[in-house]
Design a protein that fits this description.
OB fold (Dihydrolipoamide Acetyltransferase, E2P), alpha/beta, Rossmann fold, eight-stranded mixed beta sheet, 19% helix, single chain, 443 residues
Length: 443
């Protein structure tokens, strides 16, 4: 039985994992936690909401740092609290559903507050900065009607020791068997992943592409042999359509509406026309490369840089016939550091992927980048700024990383001029942003 954590006079004993605290919960912070304090100690609390009073069990105790805790009893509830849509992701459960107890409107406010806090604290933006004024997190079509469920076109599971499909307990290697995964798209839910037995320890990936049947991979191999790739289509509101081939286990935006949402937002933010030069960094299978190549036309150029050989192979096929799209394979920071102003000629064949001595054109009118959660970092941001773009369109899946890179750019004469945020991961803390930076003085 867990005991009440020591709060009395000195010498009553140190707190330990399993102790229960009564906490007044403060603001949401990055990672799906809320901030609380106990006798001056910072406690990051999951499964709580700002303004609540809860009893929370300690799950991690750092003697010279913060503590972690899970709320296990709500003494004073927030009006945004609802019954969890996925109890398996509750206290002691799997990761990936840390906002399942928050109303859908409350989730949008939560994510807005986290973005704003990161950009103020880490990005050093003033509270009244124009990019933050009136910021709201946009919900994508269909989510409200579905209650934020059945929106993921890709899920990954792992089999436990008895061959049952499940996921890892939060911050643990232990696999918890599941009976369902309510965030999975309907075609995946219908594939009976939880009703069969798998090889213990196997990784199970299920992909529901926009064009075709569900593909199931077990340890990277197709369950029934045959195809390893899927077809994706992006339909924009103006009627344009883009087609892609993507490796089944490769990266593609997870939400059913994410690719369309982000392509539309990036094209609007980039505002490029015929003849323009664009860098597309961390370009993946070409989600943005293909439409950007259409925007710049045959007299323009899009230099796409990607480090994953599998994604470059997909991109090669996706840009087939678009001679203005030039692909460069290799770590983005290394490619930008090593090209030394040398790049392949405009119109180079898409399969002539750049080697270490080659790279994008030395100047870009617009740079689009979609880095991983760690962000672009100082070296990449410096190379981007050195290219002299009129605007930088930064697609971010991590508010803290975005804030660090924005701070770096602002120190070097660029300003954040617009920011949009999209809830592409309902019931989780994740949020996607599209930010635009421009030089403070042009010319």
């Amino acid at each position: 039985m867990a005991s009440e954590a020591p709060t009395g006079p000195a010498g009553s004993g140190p707190a330990t994992v399993g102790d229960v605290l009564t906490l007044d919960v403060g603001a949401p912070v990055h990672g799906g936690h809320c901030l609380a304090r106990h006798d001056g100690r910072v406690v990051f609390v999951r499964h709580a909401l700002p303004g609540e009073r809860v009893r929370a069990v300690l799950t991690e105790v750092r003697r010279k740092g913060y503590w972690r805790a899970d709320a296990i009893e709500v003494l004073t509830a927030s009006p945004d609290r609802v019954d969890s849509v996925w109890s398996a992701a509750g206290p002691g459960g799997v990761g990936g559903g840390e906002l399942a107890h928050v109303s859908l409107p409350g989730q949008l406010v939560w994510k807005r507050d986290v973005i704003t806090d990161a950009l103020r604290r880490i990005g050093r933006l003033d509270a009244d900065h124009p990019a933050l004024a009136g910021l709201s997190v946009e919900r994508v079509p269909g989510d409200l009607e579905r209650g934020g469920l059945h929106s993921r076109s890709r899920i990954e599971l792992v089999a436990d020791g008895e061959g049952r499909a499940g996921m890892h307990r939060y911050r643990s290697h232990e696999v918890l068997a599941l009976t369902d995964m309510p965030f999975a798209a309907e075609p995946i839910a219908a594939a009976n992943l939880f009703g069969r037995t798998w090889r213990p320890g196997a990784t199970i990936q299920a992909v529901a592409p926009s064009d075709g049947e569900v593909l199931i991979l077990v340890d990277g191999e197709p369950l029934r042999g045959g195809r390893r790739n899927v077809r994706e289509r992006v339909h924009l509101a103006d009627g344009r359509e883009f087609a892609y081939r993507v490796a089944g286990g490769g990266f593609w935006q997870v939400h059913l509406e994410a690719a369309r949402t982000l392509v539309g937002a990036v094209l609007e933010a980039a505002a490029v026309g015929p003849g323009a030069g664009v860098w597309d960094l961390y370009s993946g299978a070409g989600l943005f490369t293909v439409p950007l190549a259409g925007e710049v036309g045959p007299d323009g150029r899009v230099d796409a840089v990607e480090g994953d050989p599998r994604a470059i192979a997909d991109a090669r096929r996706n840009v087939h016939g678009l001679d203005q799209a030039v692909l460069h394979g290799g770590d983005v920071a290394a490619v930008l550091a090593e090209h030394n102003g040398h790049s392949g000629a405009a119109g180079a064949a898409p399969d002539a992927v750049a080697g270490p001595a080659r790279g994008p054109a030395p100047h870009a009118d617009v740079v689009v980048l979609d880095p991983p959660r760690a962000g672009a970092g100082a070296a990449v941001m410096d190379a981007v700024l050195a290219a002299g773009p009129d605007r930088i369109v930064y697609v971010a899946c991590d508010p803290a990383a975005l804030a660090r890179d924005v701070a770096h750019a602002r120190e070097r004469g660029h300003e954040l001029v617009s920011l949009r945020a999209f809830d592409l991961f309902p019931h989780t803390h994740h949020v996607e942003c599209v930010a635009v930076l421009t030089p403070t003085t042009l010319g």
